[in-house]
What does this fold into?
Amino acid sequence: MSNLALIQPQRVDFDTQQTCDWLDGLPMIGTPGLGGAVAGAANVGTGLIAVGSVVAGTLVGAHTVSVTGITGGITSVSVTDPRGIVTGQGVVGAPIYAAGITLALTPGATAFAVGDSFAVAVVPVAVDITGLQFDLDARDTVDAASIALQATSGGSSPTIVSGGATGLIAMTVPQLAMAQLPAKADGYPYAILATDPSTGRRVPAFYGLIHHTAVAAQIGQGA
It folds into this structure.
């Protein structure tokens, strides 16, 4: 069974030109994973944190788990995401679900104090895309019937290279094809779809605009 269901669409815009091959790498196709959990340096309590799972769609970055109150022997906890938004609340000793992260704090020999915290790092983990085919269609407009440019990782002469277990793909479209594509500074809308050949199922992997010019834009002028 392929990892097709783990692919989440990402926006990437490109600048290409008629006089060169189109050689561009795309961001890693990944799914959120646990990078680690670290106790705050100023923590009073000696309790521990356990992260049970991180699901697809969880925001990548540092999530903060903080002790917010202690009343009647019950220690309250809140979780904030990398944007500072509170995503979950609960108590020490019980599971807490916070926008894709399942975690629990357990008390230690020294009780937690208000302000104790833990940082939970969510990092992208490469999705193994071995066996999947990637196809790009670019059009004049999003609702245009005709296709202006195509590329694929299939066939005997692929114009998209797949990195398999690395979760990476790259464009390798020859200059001849790029020269035949009319310049369009406002961009060709495109989508790259991932297909599982064994089932025929397809999902979007990347989308955006291809800004295509006759020659490279001038960056600066000499003296």
Q: What stands out?
A: The CA atoms of residues 177 and 214 lie 13 Å apart. Residues 175-179 form the longest helix (5 residues).
